Amino acid sequence: MTEGTPIDAQPENIDVFSVMNEIGIIQQLGSTAFERVMPDDMTLAQFTVLNHFVRLGGPRRLVDLARSFQVTKGAMTNTVGKLSAKGLVTVADDMADKRAKLVDITAAGRAMRDECVACLRPGLEALSTALPPEAWAAALPLLQQVRRWLDENRDWRT
Question: Given CB 3.0 to 4.6 Å as the disulfide criterion, which of 57, 70, 109, 110 pairs with 88?
């Protein structure tokens, strides 16, 4: 064992927990780095909502957004309210269900998402040099499989 290498990182001890622990640490470090470079006091929560709309389109019901992000309706209402105050999303009554709200991204929201990505680019380019392109390409399918499993099994319990 090399000094400074955690015991659970030794090949004979690698398990799903160790991998998920690394992903969690990466998420924490990445989130902090992202928020440090975001423009206009954007939070990662706000960025991910904008990114969700750019990736998947809209409009979306507020409750469906909360479910997608696995947060409470109140937490999503707060995030959407801040985005709405910045003119980055619109919130309207759902004509099919008067109790529900529909959220959609605005042109300014798409522009803000693109600006955030541009602010992230230098850090991501620096990170990309940490591993050869083949390693990044090899990691992606595994991470996509983990994401798909977690997405399809959101209520998993031991």
Answer: 109
Within a 13 Å sphere around the CA of 106, how many CA atoms are in the beta-carbon half? 14
Query: Which pTM does this prediction carry?
Result: 0.79
105: number of Cβ within 10 Å = 24
| Phi, psi (rounded to 5 degrees) for 24 | -65, -45
Structure tokens belonging to residue 68: 């997608």
Task: Work out the angle between the directed axes of helices 107-128 and 44-56 (0-180°, nearest 10).
Answer: 110
Token couple for 57: 């389109």
Please report, in tens digits, the pLDDT of each residue of the chain (158 residues total): 445 556 555 566 668 888 899 999 999 999 999 999 999 889 999 999 999 999 998 899 999 999 999 999 999 999 999 999 999 999 999 888 878 899 999 999 999 999 999 999 999 999 999 999 999 999 999 999 999 999 899 887 65
Pairing state between β 60-61 and 97-105? antiparallel
* Residue 62 near residue 76 (C-beta atoms within 8 A): yes
The tally of CA atoms less than 13 A away on the side-chain side of residue 17 is 3
